[in-house]
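#structure-requests
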Amino acid sequence: MIVNEPKTAVPIKLVFDANSLKERSTQLSYVADAAVCQALAVYAGLVDVSHFEVNFDVARSGRLGAKVSGHVKASVTQTCVVSLEPFAAKVQESFEVRFLPEPTQKAKTSRKTRDFDADLEEQVLQVAFDGDDPPEILHDGKIDLGAVATEYFVLGLDPYPRKPDADLSSVASGIKFLEIGAGPLPAEANSPFSGLAALKDTKKS
């Protein structure tokens, strides 16, 4: 069951009620409209996001938790770090995230509460034993699918995007100390005292 989410900084507003999960998993698909694509571009510092879609598979994990797996696909425009020109790129990122409820805050006076926390601790230990990432928290039984999709979209971006035909030598043309294949500067040119030496020679003459 998808429920309304209050406005946040995350561009995708999509929350799933884990209490609605049955024995079988729930499959969901989401395709961003133009406004959300624009918001994603701003959020991720991109020139443009022309297409964004994500598929979710939400299932129970143990007696108390939930597991969200899926795949993000997007078409974006990034800025080349070499030429500073915009170019088209694709994002393909798979994910799997586990969720567990918050530990009870009430005094452990009832057997039901003690059993709940014991089961929760067992599941946390099982996740740690499996070597998975620490589980996220289920807040009031809700899973923020929008935050999950946005996080893995950003993780799927190349942090140093380079246009396939980018040529560093053409960018560095005319700048001697950046020219590709240029030899090292003379030792005296690298010395912080080279300028003083030249001034001293001028005075002597």
